[in-house]
Design brief:
Elements lengths: L5 H10 L3 E7 L5 E3 L6 H4 L10 H5 L13 H8 L5 E5 L6 H12 L6 E5 L2 H10 L4 E6 L5 H11 L3 E5 L6 H7 L3 E7 L2 H10 L2 E4 L8
Parallel strand pairs: 1-3, 3-4, 4-5, 5-6, 6-7, 7-8
Antiparallel strand pairs: 1-2
Helix pairs in contact: 1-4, 5-6, 6-7
Amino acid sequence: MPENSLPSFQAAIDFGAGIECDVCLSGDGQVMVFHDHDLKRLCGIEGSVEGTRAEVLAARPLLGTQATIPWLSELLDLVAGRAPILIEAKVWNGNAARLAGAIAADLADYAGPVGVMSFDPRVSWWFARNAPYRHRGLVVSARASALERWTAVGFGSPNFLSVERTLLGSRWAAKARTKFNLYSWTIKTAEQRAQAGVHADALIWEGDGRPGI
């Protein structure tokens, strides 16, 4: 099943797992569940998400399947509180505030467990000031320096961190865990799950990284 598709989300619900998804803005400001900036890898066509209207994106099949690009609102309707959702906001061309505001609008009437996170600390900053009741996080890359990580944490005011798996066990991650719940991505094997489970509070997994493998 293709990533970020309604069939894959239904499979997660059936398995009893939480859901992690990626979202970005369409050309007309709608929140679409999609990972990339452009459509080439996942749809096999040229063009960008932010340059295409939502209705056009929603009719576009994901490569090799009949599944199409969903709206965030469709995902929320599907889940309806049956599983926790972790939404990663993909910021392009400085649209952090617009994207955060659009996500918050879609979540306005949603009562299920949900968190919003991003590599861009301006997203968690926006939620801290405009929707502080929403669970908000910062995604942390191993490529960033310790100074860059702490600067982003200080600016973004997150209440959880989602760190790259290779950071687990480091002094930085251990110190961060004394202040924040630590999630980790992406766990792909049983061995990685066993290692990451010692150092993180929640694991974002795919494939053979699932529990019980």
